[in-house]
Amino acid sequence: MFRTALFAAVMASALSIRSQDTLSLKQALDRTLSQNAQLRVQEMAVAAAKGGYDQARASWLPQLSFSYSYLATDDPLNAFGFRLQQGSIEASDFDPAQLNDPEVRTHATMALSLRQPLFNLDAARMRKAQLAARDAADWQRVRTEEGLTFAVRKAYADFQFLHQARRAAVAATAAYEAHEQLVSNYLEQGLAKRTDLLEVGVALNEVRNRLLEIESNSENAGNLLSYLMGEESFNRYVPSDSLVVVALVAGEATSGGRSDLRAVEAGIASMERMYEAEANDRLPRLNAFGEYKVYGEDPVNLGTGTFMAGLQLNWEFFKGTQRTHGLRKRRFELDKARTEMADAIQRARLDVQVVKNECRQLEAEIAVRKSSAQLAAETKKILTDRFRQGLEKTVDVLRAEAVFLEAEILLYQAISEFNKKSYELEFITAKNRQK
User: What would the pLDDT profile of 223-269 be if each residue is shown by its tens digit?
Assistant: First the structure.
């Protein structure tokens, strides 16, 4: 009877699981890296940084502009000037009466202007600053991918643990129900007391509550995976990968390996170029320019054309103390960023040692938990067999069932915690793929 009830409960649990979709860790990672909203946001940030670099790079390109104007005036000076530009001056235009009180003159102007930067060092430094900012955004995108990979692995490890804990709780529930039926039969035969049946009922309710708690936590873990995978609805999944100890993979927490530190390095490089750009702001700028204009009295039929071309040198060599204080502010910000970078590397090295120690502790704990689970299983089997023969007390077999369930859950939890620490160690140390 005991084995029949246990088999029925396990089969019912298996059928319930089959009605849900299975999910492997690889599937979860693939869906996350293709659908997660955080990645899309980061890709937009990369595109924006690339746009800033392209804009800065275009500063060396020629600037071409077009303008058109149509005016009417009786102002003496402008009226005479319009006649000059239109090439329509006659001897009668020099009549004092005509000069002092001209008729209303109309004037149309169409202009095409060209400006070509030739020498502008601060713009060149700004272009390099934008290039470094683009690299920083690229590395941040890589780190976002790695962070999501770590988050999915952690969530999946919790999901595996809760799935295994649920199976253990279902089996324990079936065992308690079988014990309850057996004690009920003994009570009818006068071989057990009423208190024995009550004790089994209390224990059965406890394990049922434990099962409900595990199922609730399992659903929450599945919902978290659905969110990370970018799914619009919370689907019900069961893990298809078995809960086993994963191998440790670790590198060194240096700026050459971690993409977040590479992003900080690129950000500092951008700040350095910005500082150089502001320092070069005191140097002169040289531009070539050209302009071609066509004039006419009629707004459409224009006639006379003129051109102007040359070089223009601009030099703001003194702006009070504004430039000096601005450079000083930039220098302090740059020193602050470098100090924070050095501290981040030291902190990363400390984190590596802490996680490595936790991994060693969890490895030892897994060995102890395995031994405890084996001993608890053997004790449970012996006491259960003796209980069915009427040789053990009810409270003893109930205690053995509780100890075995707890030993199983603690073993699964230790494996899950070790796997999560292993994933964390890889996240904070492993050399990452190129951006």
Answer: 999 999 999 888 889 999 999 999 887 666 555 678 999 999 999 99
For the chain, the structural domain boundaries read 2-64+120-285+322-429
In angstroms, rounded to a whole number, what is the distance separating the alpha carbons of residues 261 and 373?
43
**C-alpha angle 209-210-215 in degrees, rounded to nearest 5:** 95
Task: Report DSSP letters for 206-263, one per residue.
Answer: HHHHHHHHHHHHHHHHHHHHHHHTT-SS---EEE-S---PPPP------TTT-HHHHH
Structure tokens at 112: 């095409």
Comparing CA positions, the residue from 282, 277, 276, 304 lying closest to residue 292 is 304
- The whole-model pTM stands at 0.80
Cβ neighbours of 391 (radius 10 Å): 9
User: From the CB of residue 210, how many other CB atoms can be counted at a distance below 10 Å?
Assistant: 20
pLDDT tens track for 393-410:
888 988 999 999 999 999
SS3 431: coil
Q: Which residues pair with 294 in a beta bridge?
A: 110, 305
Which residues, 6+ apart, have CB-to-CB distance to 170 below 8 Å?
A: 9, 10, 12, 13, 211
Furthest-apart CA atoms within the chain: distance in Å: 142
Answer whether 271's CB lies under 8 Å from 330's CB: yes
343: left (phi over 0), alpha (psi -120 to 50) or beta: alpha
Q: How many CB atoms lie within 10 A of CB 244?
A: 8
Annotate 76-96 with DSSP letters as a single string: HHHHHHHHHHHT---GGGG-H
Give the DSSP letter of residue 283: S
Query: Which candidate, 431, 342, 434, places its Cα nearest to that of 141?
Result: 434
Radius of gyration for the chain, computed over Cα atoms and rounded to the nearest angstrom: 40
Segment among 307-321, 392-406, 413-427 with least mean pLDDT? 307-321
Sign of torsion over alpha carbons 194, 200, 203, 205? negative
Total residues belonging to the chain: 435
- Cβ pair 286, 363 in contact under 8 A: no
Q: What gap in Å lies between CA 106 and CA 111, rounded to an integer?
A: 17
**Architecture of the domain whose range is 2-64+120-285+322-429:** Up-down Bundle (1.20)
